[in-house]
Amino acid sequence: MELIISNLNKTYANGVHALKDVNLTIPQGMFGLLGPNGAGKSSLMRTLATLQEADSGSATFGDIDILNDKKKVREILGYLPQEFGVYPKISAINMLNHIASLKGIANKGERKSLVESLLVKTNLWQFRNRSLGTYSGGMKQRFGIAQALIGDPNLIIVDEPTAGLDPAERVRFHNLLSEIGENTVVILSTHIVEDISNLCSNMAIICLGEVVAKGNPSELTKEVAGKIWKKPVDKNELAAYQKDFQVISTHLKAGQTIIHVISEEQPHASFEKSKANLEDVYFAEITSRMEAIVD
Amino acid sequence: MFRQIYLFELKYRLKRPATWAYFGILLVFGLIVAIGGNGPVSEKVFVNSPIGIATMLITISIFGVMLASAIMGVPIYRDIEHKTENYYFTYPISEKGYVLGRFLGSLTILFLISLGFHAGLIAGFAIGPYAGYVEPERFTDFHLSYYLQPTFILYWSNFFVSGSIFFALVALTKRIMLAYAGGAILFITYLVTLTLTQDIENKDLVSLFDPFGFGTYSNVIDYWTPEEQNTKTVPITGMLVWNRILWVGIGLLALLYTVFKFDFQRFLNRKYSTKKVKIQNETVNVSAVLERIPSVEKVYSKSLNLKILLDLAKMEVKNIVKDNFFIAILIAATLFLFFDGWYGFPLYGTPSLPTTYYMLEVKDFNFIVLMFVLIVFMTGEVMHRERGVNYDQIFGSLPIPNGVIYGSKFLALIFISFLLVNLVLVSGVFNQITKGYYDFKFGMYFTDLYLIEFPKYITFVMLAFFVHSVVTKKFIGHVVAIAIWTLLFAINSFMDVDNNLYLYAYAPGYTISDMNGFGHFGTALFWFRIYWLAFGGLLAYLGFLLWKRGTDTGRKSRLRLAKGRLNKATISTMIILAAICLGSGLYINYNTKTINNYQTEKAGTIASAEYEKQLGKYNRIDQPKVVDVKLEADLFPENRSATIKTVYKLVNKSIRPIDSLHLNWGSPGIFHKEVEAFKINGRTPVLGRKYEDFNYEIYALGTRMNPGDTLVMELTVTGSFKGFPNEGSGRQIVYNGTFMDNSFFPSFGYDTQEELTSDQDRKKYELPTKDYSLPSQNDGWGLKNLLFNDDADYVTFEGTVSTAPDQLAIMPGYLQKEWEENGRKYYSYKMEGDLDFFYNISSARYEIYKEVWTGKNGKKVNIEIFHHPEHTYNIDRFVKSVKHSLDYFSENFGPYQYRQIRIMEFPRYAGFAQSFPNTVPFSESFAWVGNFSDPEDLDYAYFVTSHEVAHQWWAHQVTPSATRGANQISESMAEYAALMVMKKEYGRDAMQRFLKEELDDYLRGRANESKFEKTLLDNDNQAYVWYQKGALILYALQDLIGEKTLNKGFERFVDSALYRQKAPFATSLEWYDYIKSVTPDSINYFLEDSFEKITLYSNKTSEAIYKTLENGKYEITINIESSKSYFDGNGKLLDSPQNPNLIEIGVFGEDKKNKAGMTIKSPIILEKKWIKPGKSSFTYVVDNLPFKAGIDPYNKMIDRIPDDNLVTIEESSD
Asked: Which CATH number covers residue A193?
């Protein structure tokens, strides 16, 4: 099953054009959505998660018309929003059980074993009876993924799931996701480039509501391979470099400012070639567009 | 530091749109009130008088509790809400600076917002005279002081008090909800003190504890006349000062406590559950990777949806009932119910038995307001449950149909509503048990609560759902919903919109009666409930369509969503609801308007004006007078109709011939009359002209009726009630408890009583001012007509009445025969001698209690009490009063004219007692269910019965003429007579409290006068003059000249005026002459002061001290101040004469109990002294240690501050 999004548009009541003619085909497996804050990732995901209307365009998942047949979508959906809360006074096990019943799992026994296995899976077993209000950020996030996984969802949408997780939790989370990713469509949004390169076989970069790049992460990286140049510069010269070259990113390394520049040829003898990675792809797509807004 | 925080708060708040929105609302409200309203004052007071302005300001400050909680609750909470507390508190600021800065900043804003109302008023009062809604004369000039003083003393101090409390609550508990709860509690305290005001003995208590000072203020201005209200601001003295000290003190304390107690660290501590949790170390479970998630089966079916619906609803209910705010309001509401039930229904300060209908009626007092607010708030909670904890996105993407989610929330609220109506039952039964009253009527409880009240709550829920669906911000939702309700209330109460068809959730009023149960009200209630449920259902459905699921708040997307939710099922449901709503609406309109002639109040006023303009020309035309009445009445209580045939013998008593008969049926109403037969001297008369709008018919008599001629008029009329009206009990004929009088038939000629009386209305419709409704004492026409009916002088009466087989029917006179025929009961009555043209026709399932009174000269009178079988509680009191009254009146005024006297109960659709010849109907709610177990409470059953019996002399034996002042012969005399019976029974020393009660009613009455106060001699329709002033003056007079002496005069008056057959009938001047004839010259000043003028005393005891003498006796010195002033009818001071007045001085021991158990005074010295206005001093030597002393200790004089007459005696300091 594939998720096909075509010409999706959304303008909010306050005039923000959140989605501009978004076209994406998302195959089974993990799909990464990369983009700066406010790019439209969450808008897209909320639209797919039936929480928001689109102005025009269509989205289909197999034979389900996502925009119009919300009921069907919700039956196969697992959704973890970017920000979410919980009822503070209820325990995780009760809450998951409640959500499972709402997701149509009518059999009590099945529900019980499902909830228990999810609690084990998300490493919340020993905290299952604690009220959700006492959970730490990481625990809450894991609870969030547990609830999203209830009921064998075929479409899983997770919005910046690793924000606020410590490194160990992030790894665990990735493992969990990649395990599921095998037979479902998982859409993962993040602004951590590394997450995508580690996990996703397909991805798209969204900026200012538009899809600016899509494809396989390594192929996308290949496209800029050999075009990335770097140079340590003095802080005072930065502005001059930004004016003369297409600087896509600046890093601080051991007290030095290192700039990355994209260019078909070596821009200047003082530049040396840098090994291209997904981050360069990201910055290459984003920087110029964002500057256009600032200017 | 404080300064920066303060200024930041100001700047922040000034930029918030909410600040200006609140300001704007108050401004607009002020404008509306100022331009369009009559204000809270009577017609004779300027709309912008100091009292008018002060009253409006206080009222706003009470409702301003909402505003105060919105403004003062948030400044600290803002840091929690926006999660800024985590870093804000790390800044180098001090707790005190932070708290004070935020507090004073917000308070400044609150005060600023509150000035919006002033701005509106000031502008409105400037525009008002030109806007034309209120007469320009009703506006006076702008005076800044009228605004300043009440603003500081009451308006702002109230805002400060409530604001400080809310601020403290939120700052110390971090819970914004507590600010609302605090508001509710303040409001409840206010309402409780309001309930207490029903007893004047609680005056000081109310004055002290009313948190808004409204009661305090009212107690100060209660007796102010229009003149004073127009010129004086409220003096800052006495209880007002203490009240303000108390409440502003509480506010200050709350603030200071917060300032000193507030602590950043404690504020940041978060606490979710009180249960201690074991903190476990997070260990990575390696097996997690290996765990396989089992596959599950998902079912989506109707039955599952139903199960989810119920589960979710159950969860919501659980959530609601655990909500602390809900619990708090619920407890408050229940306390309220209980409290209202406990104190709720006193008459003359005496409680009533806690009958089931009383316990039910308390739900319409304060409870209903709390319930609506609670429903709105809980709906808000339920609708925002997921959004509130940020769980809405997860929840919204779950595969639950919209209908199930919305429905579950709705169902939860319905269940809560059911719970709420049951509170009335619980509180009611508990109240009854506590009071030892075990006559529970569960059927009545269930019918009222489940069938009538519960559906109304459902309509409230529907409105709340609609508002909270359309408005996605919770607080604004609350405000909008409550605003809608307030608006409904306002247009209903102040703008005379009273068609229940247009007022959401309204329905015709109904009264539950022990005699008649729910009576005939069911049909109307059924249709109105259906109508509003369908309408509310539509609203709730519309809400459903617009209800927000997901994250989109844009109008466009929500409309698109709504369109998406429209399908066959939703559309057809809505069509069905709309059809029900429309159908029932049309049916209701047909019933109220087409059948029952509904008209707006304004239309009614216009009709009255037209009546006068078109028919006024027939005023005083000569019409024949009835001299004999024969009735054949067939009552059909089961279908609320009656067919009555009357045969009137008419005589032309005028000096001119009469050729036409004017039948005045009264404007079409809800009591439908159909003429079955109409004959004059055996021939059907010819209708000459008919004024359809007023049901005024003019028939040609055929043969002209010369003076002294007689004719016989036969008229058979069927009167019935059809369908149901918009309002009105239609009490004349009911299933059990029919009670009608001669107004069943048309009266003859034009009736001035139907004219407009209000100066303002008359001016508006271009009619001349009508100062008096009756002509002067020497007016020829007035002198030849009797006051209560000008269609006859005295008549003779007999008749037969038939009714349902299980009922007993009553008419005037002695029962001649009773029999059964055609399955109906017949009674035939005949009166002996003359009676007023005033008869009753009654029928109910009565039981009769009988006793006989034997007079001194051996005369026997049958006393018969016709009562509802259950109402046996106070029969002995009626009987005792009748006997005592007959004793006193026959001895002092002359013999009783009949051989029987009947007291008869009728359903509580009206609350009066009335005196017909030998029959006294008493409303069911009046005395029958009074609780007189405490001897300290006024036994009004005794008092009012005596008053009504007195009317057998003063109205029926001596019938006043139709001239101004004449009604004092009836009402003042009856009230005086009843006081004298009380005095004889309880003793002189028990009378002070009754006199004080009369005094309070009189002073209140004159303060609310809408024309001008009239004197005892020319008062035509001011009840406070004829009852209270009349009684006080006559009581004082008998005290001054002697009871026997005064009564001698009255006896002579009776002798002369007894059943006077010919004009001139009795006038107030004649009455006054008899009074003068027995009054010594020295007391003439009192007669002039009291009967011809409006006179008020100001008597006061400044101190009373005693000294123990060497011989063991006590020397008492009493220092008093006295003054007397004359006022005009508007309350303007005319003169303060300096001649001495005869006033009582008394020295008292400790109060005692009399034989009835009543506290009475125990005078050691009581003597009348000629006292000159100004200060005087009196010295006495007494044997026993006295307790109190003072001037006019029994409140016999009219004195606006009766409480300072008597003071406790203190020991001399030297």
From this structure: 3.40.50.300
| Token representation of residue B543 | 């809400």
| Domain extent at residue A64 | 3-215
Partner A contacted by B269 (CB < 8 A): no
pTM of the predicted structure, to 2 decimals: 0.87
Nearest CA among B294, B220, B363 for reference residue B1007: B220
**Tokens found for residue B146:** 């009228």
The yes-or-no answer to whether B621-749+789-958 and B1097-1211 have a common fold is yes
* Region B884-893 average pLDDT: 96
Judgement on whether residues A49 and A161 belong to the same structural domain of the protein: yes
Tell whether B569 lies on the interface with A, counting CB pairs under 8 A: no
DSSP 8-state secondary structure symbol assigned to residue A157: E
Is residue B889 packed enough to be buried (19+ CB in 10 Å), middle (13-18) or exposed (0-12)? buried
Nearest-by-Cβ selection for A12 from B294, B554, B561: B554
Helices (H) and strands (E) in chain B, counts: 39, 32
Q: E strands along B1088-1200, which residues?
A: 1094-1097, 1100-1108, 1114-1122, 1124-1127, 1133-1135, 1141-1148, 1152-1153, 1159-1160, 1163-1171, 1174-1182, 1188-1191
A vs B, Cβ pairs < 8 A, gives 147
- Inter-chain residue contact B296 with A51, CB threshold 8 Å: no
Distance separating alpha carbons of residues B828 and B899, to the nearest angstrom: 17
CATH class of B1097-1211: mainly beta
CATH architecture of B621-749+789-958: Sandwich (2.60)
Query: Which A residues in the span 142-161 are in contact with B, Cβ-Cβ below 8 Å?
Result: 144, 147-149, 151-152
- CB contact (8 A) between residue A104 and residue B299: yes
Q: In this predicted model, what pLDDT tens digit does every residue of B1076-1120 receive, in sequence order? A: 999 999 999 999 999 999 999 999 999 999 999 989 899 999 999
Answer whether A53 sits within 8 Å of B561, measured CB to CB: yes
Please list every residue in chain B whose beta carbon sits closer than 8 Å to the beta carbon of residue A130.
277
- For B467-536, the DSSP string reads HHHH--SHHHHHHHHHHHHHHHHHHHHTS----GGGSTT-------BTTTBTTTTHHHHHHHHHHHHHHH
How many Å apart are CA B224 and CA B779, to the nearest integer?
34
Could you give the ipTM of this predicted complex?
0.90
Q: What letter does residue A164 receive in the DSSP assignment?
A: T
- Answer whether A115 touches B (CB < 8 Å): no
